[in-house]
Amino acid sequence: MPETVAAVAEAARAKINLALHVTGRRSDGYHLIESLSVFTAFGDQIAIGPAPRDLFTVSGAFAQEIPSGPDNLAVRARDGLRKAAGVAAAGPVLIFLEKNIPTSSGVGGGSSDAAAVLRGLVRYWKVDIEADALARIGLALGADVPMCLHARPLVARGIGEIVEPVEKFPSLALVLVNPRVAIGTPQVFAALARRENPPLPPLPKNPDTAALAGWLAATRNDLMAPAKNLAPTIGDALEALDGTGAAFARMSGSGATCFGLFKDRACAEQGAQAISAAHPGWFVVATETTASAPRQKEH
Fold first, then answer.
1. Which of 44, 113, 144, 222 is catalytic?
2. Is position 15 annotated as part of the catalytic site?
3. Domains of the chain, with CATH numbers?
């Protein structure tokens, strides 16, 4: 068995759908989408280390809300990569998950955990695997996992597996608000009134916060209307964000987490504090998104 590193850590960042257009439906029932997605500094944390046998432990604010056995996406990611790498190249590991993202909240928590495990185990086990092969393992776990493997600004198409990184995309100051209602993604998709909708408009070049707010106003989250019908408190979360000075507010994914776009981190912190004070039972956090990676110079 090849030598492994002592331990690795990976951030499992929350995924925010700034815009999410449902453009069709495949014959197998999967919906086709176009989504501009970003990833936040806030999220779960994964640590991987040596163990005499496979172990999976969970802590954090929302640890009690997720399965700790073989059904957890983090465990399934381990098993999927081990199968691809071969047992001889993939010894037992301890996977530790700090669960900070609310469950069933529309920000890709489980998918991001799975992606972080895949990235971490590639380093820990020193697996020689191409990005496309890793993405296929991720896609078998869920449609969001391939984009979570990138964890940078991107446009996702197809069922989420066609990923196009976005260049020159800035870091954005956001407030995330979840009124602590869990919504099942299948329920939201089933309640869609229309599944054939226009795609995303072209992205603005070199966007800043103001330009993005204007662009977002011309886009949609096609899942927001059915989600609000299922959970009207989503509307309350959006009103709270608007009332604290967000330049733009929208629901992410299938909900119920909503995001507000703020001028800078200080304004986001102020907004988050005001919402938390008014709604102490809600999940509220101020954060920022990761910017596009610098383009590599050609030699």
1. 144
2. yes
3. 8-165 (3.30.230.10), 173-288 (3.30.70.890)
